[in-house]
Amino acid sequence: MLVVRFNPVTLRTCDENRRRIFLQDREAEVPATGAVEFNIILPVPPERQNKSHKTWDSAKAVAWIPVRAIASRTRQAEIIWILTTLSAAELPALAVLGLYRLRWQIELFFKRLKSLLHMDTLPSREGPTAKSWMLSRLIAAALAQRLVQPSGPLSPWGYQLRAETAQA
Questions:
Q1: In the chain, where are the structural domains located?
Q2: Are 42 and 18 in contact, with CB atoms under 8 Å apart?
Q3: With pLDDT > 70 as the criterion, what percentage of the chain qualifies?
């Protein structure tokens, strides 16, 4: 299972017939609210023989991975692209966006732990000192989370996702 944000400009995407498509050219199809999805395949490049950064021919791909590219807009009308290997039957587009939103919450939580509680700098990495230091920081994090929770989670979209979807 894969659910990841991606930039369609930096990833080679193809249609089911293995022809190159440019998802950024389809951004006009992304609705103001909701999501649009595209069934695409990704070519897996052959192993490099040297350190050259030359482009490679898609015909030399060692495998082709079927995925869905899901796009949605933020309040500022920016487009967020999510790539998933889950089928539409397994997880609809809005549920995939919701899953990514949950991942976003986890990222923000760890960022807060590192910046506010200095969880990224241990005074000691050995024995009971490190363990007690980490446990005290985790208790502080749990208390802080209880105080912050009433404000609700943040979303990369900036609004609640609705069930208005278009499919391609």
A1: 3-167
A2: no
A3: 87
